[in-house]
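Q: What changes when 2-oxoglutaric acid is included in the input?
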Amino acid sequence: MHTLPTIDFTNKKNLKPGSTSWLATALEATRALEEYGCFIAEFDKVTPELNDAVFHGLEDLFDIPIETKVLNKSTKPLYGYVGQIPFIPLYESMGFDYSNTLDGVRSFIEVMWPNGNEAFRCVFNLCFPVSANVLAYNNLVTELEEMVTRMVFETYGVEKYLDAHRKMVTYLCRGMKYRPPVENETNMGFVPHTDKDFITVLHQNGVNGLEVKARDGEWFRVEFEPSSYIVMSGDAAMAWSNERLYSPFHRVTMNGKESRYSIAQFSFLEGIIETPKEFVDEEHPLLFKPFDHLKYLDFYNKEENRRLECALRTYCGV
Ligand SMILES: O=C(O)CCC(=O)C(=O)O
Ligand SMILES: [Fe+2]
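A: The predicted holo structure follows.
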């Protein structure tokens, strides 16, 4: 039986880079990403009030009539409204387009008009409802993602590449709803997959359902509180680290009668991902050629590539 490690990132740990508790936490986090490809992070920057507001916002969002939701279109893969996937009928999701730049959240070209408790926002030619709460939430969760990324770079002694990495990071935030299955319906909420990004931070409304496949092939359930987050390494982190970090298969299975809402923040890199030479030696030959992360997403999103066991290996494996 596997249990995912829980790592404390709360204020009481007073995590300051270089401190004893920072170094210990960095080692713990890196080892967990190597062994399981994920861990549970206790993190208290998002207040319970903001947390509730984000999930109420998601409920309102998914309650909007389907005719309106489908107006949220995007040419970018995984952005916009994704609903009614035939083989996973319980699942709906909405991607929010936002990016962090060095001077904070990039401001959108905004046109807002009210719809119930939400405001519709028009970004370039993408229209979608996003509340200020989601943006506030994203900024706080980014702090967790930044801490973990820094810890991993430092633990591996490759911190000299961190600044360049940070300048390339761009985010996708996706809100998801899983309704409970009706009688005789599959309880598959989301099919097994690995994340294609660098680091994912995943959060849920208190209804469990996530399952992770361990390195030994065993699927195990991950249960976590509304005050905790799952931090997961994706395919890009696996390739970058020459497979020190693990990108685990995971899925969602729905049990019980309550809807599950989750929110995931994915970090993608705009540019070329290259394995630092520090990860390569005679015992550890280079496994992935340098690759353009966003072009890899385009590759993965082609129908014929979606079912590959490891799309990244096909795309740029040595
Ligand atoms: O909803 C979840 O807990 C998982 C979602 C997920 O794995 C994904 O969007 O990549
Ligand atoms: Fe995922």
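Observations recorded in class: The helical segments are 20-35, 48-63, 66-69, 132-155, 162-168, 235-240, 293-300, 311-316.
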